[in-house]
Predict the 3D structure of the following.
Amino acid sequence: MANPVVDKRDVKFVLYEQLDIEQLSNTAKYAEYSKEMYDMVLEQAWKLAENEMEPANSKGDRDGCVWEDGKVRVPESYHRPYQMYREGGWLPISEDVEAGGQGFPVVMGLSAIEAFGAANLALFLYPGLTHGAARLLEVYGTEEQQRNFMDKLYSGEWCGTMCLTEPQAGSDVGASLTKAVPNEDGTFSISGTKIFISCGEHDLTENIVHMVLGRIEGAPPGTKGLSLFIIPKLRPENGQLVDNDVNCGGIEHKMGIHGSSTCTLNFGENNNCTGYLLGKENQGMRIMFQMMNESRLFIGMQGQSHASAAYLYALRYAKERTQGPDISRIKDPTAPKVAIINHPDVRRMLMFMKSVTEGLRALLYYVGFCEDMVRSSTSDEEKEKYQDFIDILIPVCKAYGSDMGFRVCETAIQVLGGYGYCQEHPVEQFLRDCKIASIYEGTNGIQALDLVGRKLVIKRGQLFKRLIGETEDFLKWARKNFELRELVATFEAAREQMIQVTKYFGLKGMTADYVVPLLYATPYLELFGDVAIGFMLLWQALIAHRRLQEIYVDAGAKDGESQKEVLATNRSAAFYRGKVASAEFFITNVLSLSRGKAKAIMSGQRAAVDIPEESFALS
Amino acid sequence: MANPVVDKRDVKFVLYEQLDIEQLSNTAKYAEYSKEMYDMVLEQAWKLAENEMEPANSKGDRDGCVWEDGKVRVPESYHRPYQMYREGGWLPISEDVEAGGQGFPVVMGLSAIEAFGAANLALFLYPGLTHGAARLLEVYGTEEQQRNFMDKLYSGEWCGTMCLTEPQAGSDVGASLTKAVPNEDGTFSISGTKIFISCGEHDLTENIVHMVLGRIEGAPPGTKGLSLFIIPKLRPENGQLVDNDVNCGGIEHKMGIHGSSTCTLNFGENNNCTGYLLGKENQGMRIMFQMMNESRLFIGMQGQSHASAAYLYALRYAKERTQGPDISRIKDPTAPKVAIINHPDVRRMLMFMKSVTEGLRALLYYVGFCEDMVRSSTSDEEKEKYQDFIDILIPVCKAYGSDMGFRVCETAIQVLGGYGYCQEHPVEQFLRDCKIASIYEGTNGIQALDLVGRKLVIKRGQLFKRLIGETEDFLKWARKNFELRELVATFEAAREQMIQVTKYFGLKGMTADYVVPLLYATPYLELFGDVAIGFMLLWQALIAHRRLQEIYVDAGAKDGESQKEVLATNRSAAFYRGKVASAEFFITNVLSLSRGKAKAIMSGQRAAVDIPEESFALS
């Protein structure tokens, strides 16, 4: 039996009951699509993920990538699922039909991505990065560039990469030394070295198209002088593909994602590397920035994918593994053993994993849904509103998603105990694979700075105000639920703390104390993430609570005992009860800390920056 | 240059300035020992750790253990440092001279353990476990058993293990199926299988002595029917060592500690395995329990060791790696790059690591010091007091130490960014090696149950009351410091929250709601750990603050500017300033959450246990 990848019922709950994506069919853009088609996509994605991608995951981790004579071989087990993925037309699932895509809503594409990432993240990185490269070409490429490169990328015949990092230029992208010298024919001769390039060289496809940041001779220093170049491994010349002097100098030996090659790429070692300018000169960072939302949402989803797979695996294990008696018979050595899911501490761990996984899923899908609203709405005002939601939520999705995904993987190991630490179970791999998500596509520290230093500030704080307005509308509705009033109140209080801290940052930012928001950017993002997840879970709980009451009424179950009977026999009822429980657990255990977190931030305590460097350690 | 293992100045600060271990020389037991001798021990331990053990760490991780034909080879690089460790007489450093030891205080042994674990945990596990086995023999063995086994263990000529776990008996030790049949000569014929046995088979030493839990035929079920047996790999017979039918059926492939063999051991497959009863029949668990404090403190120290090594490595990296301009020139592309330690978010991470590492170190050493007080005091009352401190703090040391050690390792990876994810730097190994500490020697969930279900309850709550009394005495002194009054107040408030939750558990424990303390045992342990670390850091800050003031007075530095000059030139002043900063950081950022943590626990919210199993996930 393959390992489970996603909670299918919950995926459908988010899509149909929470976000109600069927409403998209009312727009011209998505008029042709229906729930039946969505269901079919989901079934196909899950089948591919479970039957083809997941079985290659653990073996791919053990085999890893092999670098030999400048070439990289991916794990043998990857080739078949990659071909099936490609033939299924999954890569451009949410792309416009005119660009060769299937035209499905972005949120549908995301739900497929969740399953693929949960099944085999290292494998899925190859097409995942390819999509980003293709999308750059779709938006900024000339017709010739699209014909030469984009079509082959969207079809998965070739793969693509993003090349930003250099040895001296990590978070500081502007320090790039990659050089571009104009040729007479409008192309550029490229020279430079890029490191940490995911999927930079491999044998899954014949050709690889690199999107490379570099500086045209004479361009200004820093990010403002960077341009973006299309640099294929093999370049088209007179209808042939010829070697383009892109050489892989080695691959990294990493903690995880062993099946994904992480390459050092040398461009133009033999002065024969041609690059094609994408967009305009010195616009490289601006172009990259516009694609960043997509790639950062993708990385947040990586955290979610690992959380999903880790939670479901630990859950199954906890139902099967027996150990110790029920707590009511703890002192009786003759008591039968029970499955460990019956032990309170194990349940606590599972509830943590469940609530975080469900909350993150909702948040990420919500952002995907916002993108669909941007794409399909006919109102500029509405478009801007949803774009604002996306822009402010993206750093939270990326950083909070990867950090919390890691926590869930860590908890899964703990549920499995000693077995969780061993490679015969997949959870230790999930943890190792997941860690990279907090680092690449901008470290989580960079995300926090993006949130505090940019997203809170641009448009005079409009993004934040809009989001708060949206939750205010939500609260008007939520306050009507009498039975969940305590949850609503705890959420309200946490939201208020977040507002206070945001105002505090606003004040500090205008004074000489501007270092304080920078120092507390990461704790702020965490608080923001808590509230965002609390919002999603409360929203879900309100829906689920109503459905549950309807089921009780239909069954004539008025008291606790008869309701318990319903829960025991009605799977929908059990599911909705679980949704309410997720909100109860998360809001009580996590949002109760919001006040303290806000207090810590607003202490403005500067010990970390005020002490001399020598105070850190003398040895 | 070897990687740094511990902050030497801070180790000495804890030993001499905080715990003032020189006072031990006033006792008869430690009258012969002096600061000069302690310093010598520290220097020797650090030299061995840095020059011999650490250089074998990364290679040992890559090579791992090899199992072939039932035999295990440890990494080749381990043999030399092991021999040097053994020849240095480190194993029985804190053992009585009469038992072949060096008679040093336990806290001195601990400080050496920290360095060895930080240098090479997987290697250090071999003698670490040997020590536990030897100690069991010292306390419970007959003269013959001591002669046959203990001496060879303390000298490191042979290694020792602890064998508890079986496939069906993990946390549920009492489910053991290992069988012992009495022989006529008083020995037992053993049959059974143990799994996850650390250092169960290897080629570091000629012989291995296993301490094995099993059930004598006809003994009662559960833990009450378990006895402890000495089962050597080679048994002494007529002056010879003969094969004792202990076979290694395989080793685990683990996430970390690759150099430490984790074995399946089959006893008596050929009906030729002899075991020697240690202590009395059916007293196996009781004996093991008495040794548990030592082994759990050792595992807590593992978390600390990794935290120490990870912090110091990340600190060095942050001082050397340049990236981006100073924040004051963030928008100037021509501004020079600065070391990343100048970036506020990096400083925040370093301060987190620093404060946790220093607080944990103090807590663990404090428990070691308590053990010295138990061993050296002539007052039964005082002995009991310190034993109570040890008993209640041990589960916190083990679980909080390993959990926070893991957090520090995780943060170190984040400081290094992409480099932290790659094997050329040691921090990803620290994370992998560290994870096991939350699992073995009783999972951290088991530790929390030990704290809540046992340590809070025994002696009518005397252990907790005593600890609170001790902190009350401390507070009387602490409240006199006017300048640190806010820190003192925040600590007091957190301590009060811990008291309230403890009382709440007491009430719940007496009602049908007894499941609530079990459900919240882990969050309670976390709160307890926060307060314990806060206590240690505040204690240190009060000492450091006084010293710093003395230095300022001596230098005639009365205002902020002149004090800054002192900090820049006087290393002691910088160190003391750093100590105060650790308390400021931890107390503000972590103890501010105590109220929320307490509130969450005292909500008594039971979502995790109340929902039906089906509510967790349907797929």
